[in-house]
Amino acid sequence: MMQEILDLINENKFSQVRDKLTEMNVVDIAQILEELERDKVLIVFRILPKDISADVFSYISREQQAYIIESITDKEISNIVNELFLDDTIDFIEELPASVVKKVLKNTDKDKRNFINQILKYPENSAGSIMTIEFVDLKKEMTIKEALEHVRKTGVDKETIDTCYVIDGHRKLEGVISIRKLILSDEDELVKDVMHTNLIHINTLDDQETAADTFKKYDFLTMPVVDKEKRLVGIITIDDIVDIIEQENTEDFHKMAGMEPSEEEYLKTSPFKLAKHRIVWLLVLMVSATFTGNIIRRFEDVLQSVVILTSFIPMLMDTGGNAGSQSSTLIIRSLALGEVKLNDIFKVIRKELSVSILAGSVLSIVNFLRIYYLEGIAFNVSLTVSITLLFTVILAKLVGGILPILAKKIKVDPAIMASPLITTIVDASALILYFSVASWILNI
Amino acid sequence: MMQEILDLINENKFSQVRDKLTEMNVVDIAQILEELERDKVLIVFRILPKDISADVFSYISREQQAYIIESITDKEISNIVNELFLDDTIDFIEELPASVVKKVLKNTDKDKRNFINQILKYPENSAGSIMTIEFVDLKKEMTIKEALEHVRKTGVDKETIDTCYVIDGHRKLEGVISIRKLILSDEDELVKDVMHTNLIHINTLDDQETAADTFKKYDFLTMPVVDKEKRLVGIITIDDIVDIIEQENTEDFHKMAGMEPSEEEYLKTSPFKLAKHRIVWLLVLMVSATFTGNIIRRFEDVLQSVVILTSFIPMLMDTGGNAGSQSSTLIIRSLALGEVKLNDIFKVIRKELSVSILAGSVLSIVNFLRIYYLEGIAFNVSLTVSITLLFTVILAKLVGGILPILAKKIKVDPAIMASPLITTIVDASALILYFSVASWILNI
């Protein structure tokens, strides 16, 4: 299908292209535009029917959006902006170069421009910044018939009519009613008798992550956003929430690998920026690994008298690091999903203690059998390594389990208490353990 | 609010409790039930109005569901099951003990039981297993007025009426039409003239992850599920997709930390099960860390002639591991989001090469300055360590960038090419590099 259309475009058979495209989903049309060379992009974009072209516009990349806006006439811009939903307009305005934004705002009608400016004022990542103001509002005194009539009259420009909002004269939110309820109710009933009044809403300044958590908790499709005076100012829809959920997950993945989170796509980010995002933690961790060096230097005589001990340092450190990051990952994720709360810390300690004794014992025994019988390492040394391994695993899992919860307690993002940091902490402790056990068992 | 109701329950003021509860969201009522002791759970559950109690039932924990089903009468079970949406019924049937399931199925009417059995046959995590069959179907010859009439008559039992599906006599899917379109269109128009015919659907046996990706791509709220003969058998709704997205993310987090993924909540999982999920990778990685031990033993003479070299091993290994897992995490996540494709491998190599030279040089220079000037390490040794560091970072980032893509190419989940595995691979290479550079610069 895709290839067929690309071929038609290259053969300049545009009327056939138009017929094919109008039958396709706008997301797929946007994808085709991404594949085209610049001169073709404009031609194809212009042959799309007006209502489709605005929709397609909201799905193409920022680069293409900027290019199209720069190339088309003011009248065409005005057509697109008037067809676009407000939240999509804001999405691209926030990320485009100033010159392009200016051209867009110049061709937006005054009302819409005011709304845009108003929403742009909300802080980044706040509920206000992701809401749309295109919703259906009803009055509670309306009959169902009047309400449906109102939906019919005003619904065409709204982002969703699935949920309608009942407000009073001061725009205070009084109730919500689904289109389903409107359709299935008797036409003579009053809105106020059918609407839901147990209202779960979010404030304009709340974080978008809070909004996402509330959507997940209540299985919402839309949620009202109110200002400080509890006036309804907008709604958030689930499609934007799905994006936010993925964005928050990506941030956690990045932080947990010791990087500054970034919303930009990997392939579109410059090497300088990528390096900048990664270097800070690498530097911090490299410098803090100095501890391990100092510990080794302090116990140099131990290592010199039993040289073979050195060769087990990497295995002990790696296993400790891996055991610790398993625990920290589980706890960080459970905290993010709300499955583990701050006051569960003792339950976590108890559980990690049991798990680490179980896992540590198995590892320790397997390791002993392997190095004593297979590799022929001396009994005392094998014992030293295996005992250290057991305690390292226990320690690593406790540290991995506790640190993320403590971080959250002091309002630091638990995600930074992940693998890289745990590894560095556990390494130092593992070495001290190792040398202490060695001094004790080997009498050095 | 919560506390107030808990107090009322403890004072046995149940009529007040009932009034309060009926004004609340079902999710919050479910949360209150979780906090109660068992004898109170049943009382409170029974005072809820019938339509609310089924909804609440779908939000309480599996343990509570099993307890309630075991304790209530057959008639009450039958009421709940008939009020429940089919997909919620299936959700809990899949996870409850057999005895409870038997009691539920015995009290389900025949039609519904047949549907349940049919859906239970779809493989776990397939689109079929998460769909619901409660949707509105229309015929294309209907007028809008007739269609709306049909929605009104049949809509009350449907999970959603936001999208209606147009099917022919053989249940083949011919089009979709949103309730919005139905309401905003002229009543005399025909469904076939208004419906969308560019149909994006999924097959019953497709993976739920594919379903989630399609939802994200097209911003859908619902999607039709068809069988091999293209007959419409069910629909998937966005609320289930949001859960699946989070579940898939959790799986990735677990795999990336070297654990078998688990859907169970951490605090509800036994230590044995937790240990079992973690031990396999710990064992594999521990045994493969033998390499590093062997490398050290092979170069024992190098270490003995310049003892100080030992003390930098942890720092080199940690920094290499961290640098590598940054890259692998970025690439694994980009692959999961579809931002990096298999044929981008050379772009990734080029980018990681630039980034690693940038980041590696900074780290290397900082490290040289620190150990030569601050710690007073000999010039040649400082140089050895810093040069090794640069090449370790380059190597780590290349390995971290390439392995996940290669994994995907041979259809292995890229998520297992994460931190623990990369660390183990990079450690061995870093040591070989270290000793080679040392032999060269220090002439050992």
Give the gist of this structure:
The structure is a homodimer of 444-residue chains. In chain A, 66% of the residues lie in helices and 6% in strands.
Could you please describe the fold and organization of this structure?
Chains A, B: Homodimer. Chains A, B: Its main location: membrane. Chains A, B: One of its GO terms (molecular function) is magnesium ion transmembrane transporter activity. Chains A, B: It is found in: Cell membrane; Membrane. 2 copies of one chain form a homodimer. The first copy, chain A, has 444 residues and is mainly α. Chain A has 3 domains: 120 residues, MgtE N-terminal domain-like (MgtE N-terminal fold, Alpha Horseshoe); 100 residues, CBS-domain (Roll); 154 residues, Tetracycline Repressor, domain 2 (Orthogonal Bundle). Chain A contains 23 helices and 6 strands. The longest helix of chain A is centred in the C-terminal third of the chain and has 31 residues. At the A-B interface, helix 12, helix 13, helix 15, helix 16 and helix 17 of A face helix 12, helix 13, helix 15, helix 16 and helix 17 of B.
